[in-house]
Amino acid sequence: MPPESLLPSLALIAVLGVTAQWVAWRLNLPSILLLLLTGITVGPLLGWVDPDALLGELLFPVVSLSVAVILFEGGLTLDLAELRSIGPTVLRLCTVGVVCTWFLTALAAHFLAGMVWPLAILLGAILTVTGPTVVGPLLRQVRPRGAVGPVSTWEGIVADVLGATLAVLVFHSILVESDFSAQGLGPALKGLSVTLGTGLLAGLGGATLLGWPLRRHWVPDHLHSPVALVLVLGIYAMSDALSPESGLLAVTLMGVALRNQRRTPVGHIIEFKENVRTLLISVLFIILAARIESDEILTLGPGAWLFVAALILIVRPAAVALSTFGSSLSHRERIFVAGMAPRGIVAAAVSALFGEELLRAQVPGLEGIEQLAPLTFLVIVVTVVVYGLGARPLARALNLAEAAPQGVLIVGANPLAKALAHALKRVDLMVVLVDSNHAAVVDANLEGLTARCANALTEDSPEQLPLGGIGHLVALTPNDEVNSLACLHYREIFGRARCFQIALPDPTEPRSPGDLRGRDLFGKGASLPELLARLERGDEIRVTPLTDTFGLEAWHEEYGPHALPLFSVDSGGFLRANSPDRPLEQGSDVQLIGLAGPGRSED
Length: 603
Prior knowledge:
Elements: H1 3-27, H2 31-45, H3 51-55, H4 59-76, H5 83-111, H6 117-126, H7 132-142, H8 148-176, H9 182-215, H10 224-242, H11 247-259, H12 267-290, H13 294-298, H14 302-324, H15 331-338, H16 345-361, H17 372-397, E1 407-411, H18 415-426, E2 431-435, H19 438-446, E3 451-453, H20 461-464, E4 470-475, H21 480-494, E5 499-501, E6 519-520, H22 528-536, E7 540-546, H23 552-559, E8 564-570, E9 575-577, E10 590-596
Parallel strand pairs: 1-2, 1-4, 2-3, 4-5, 5-6
Antiparallel strand pairs: 7-10, 8-9, 8-10
Helix pairs in contact: 1-2, 1-12, 2-12, 4-10, 4-11, 4-12, 4-16, 5-6, 5-8, 5-14, 6-8, 7-8, 7-17, 8-9, 8-16, 9-10, 9-11, 10-11, 10-12, 12-16, 14-15, 14-17, 16-17
């Protein structure tokens, strides 16, 4: 490709990737689906992007390093404390479930898609992964109750590493012995043990190498994330050089080790890696999809579609049923896990890489290598569509999630927070209070409220709190900085529009910039000291039905000019907060939650 064409092509990929992510968010669709469609459109259909000409021999090294960063970020999200309750289930899904998926997928690839046995076994190993890059966003959208969320997260990340390792085993067996006999399997198993050992030592060594200088403050804060990034790339490259394909295991273990130690804070590194992951996924899926020729997918034939249908309808349910039999998961939770197996970037990258290397090796008798990557992409597209669009309705049908969670997480357990929680419960909304003051939490629980004693600002607090059915954050502590940090902390879970904090007592006091705080609550003068003082004077938080004949104006006339609307809940159960940027409007058939003294009819 001419040098003058490189810059526009690279810029186009980045722009289209981020745009596809934004459109997916606006349309509430799986982002990877739009990324794949974008890559196919700008690649084989329009010819605007040619990854092989663009990157040349750097293509697969860049893909490999990017996947390493993605898996490291995935490891950073795994909390070993979760395994106390879900450990046996995760272990069986990642052993019995993976083997069952491998075996049944290989059978389906051979008998339905017409692949020769070596390629069918290789494809079966590749497709044991469940795609954490897809599972994570889907779980954030669905927000299911119970253990299914942590189980699916753990399975997605661990199975990715196991699937890639199994694929390496099969790949090297094929290269050593083209008929995939025991002569080729023996050396591959020996190499596999070396791969596991190298990955384990490199991963734990990398975590130690990063944690040691950070704990001793030898690295300034602004270099923490860059140092972590280059160390991840270095550990991956070194591990792979010592033992081919051990790098993915190394960086995943490195992330898990860093996440579960308590001496080195890594919250800011996790946030940086999440941003990098989003950009890398956007770019990688477009690049890999652009390499697929449209006629390759169109000429796969009906057997390929039957193969994908078998994966969804037979292989995944059978693997989950076998591996979760007798587990702590309920029947409904097992059904949901069986309906959550989209494939992602690791399957795409590994299939493209191994397919390319097998074509170069020219192994005799290995027909159909060119089908490996297109068939994998077909699986990715169909599973993302089916599971992505079906996860939320399935969770709702199984009563594991709500259509649009409207419950409220209140940071603080002071009298205002407790009075507000009682009012929200009266309109059938789920409410959870969180406070680090043990006495305040005990008082709230004695009043029949759901309260937890925890620090809402810790990075693992979302996993510690019962957030099923919760869709809003209301920060009501007397510390404005704590309120702002709480809104920032939960913004990724609930979204900016649903994170609120109480106003400052003095509007002239310095305050955090708008992008570093939540939305203000209730309007001018509605500070925490003022509202607490009103409660002490005898005002109450009341729930009042509004109708066509008794609307918001009539409510103000009834309770006086100082009555303050706080929230409204419409007939569909949707909660709206009274905020300066969006005050409550005149409406009917809603429940108004407001702070007011005795009404005129009560005088």
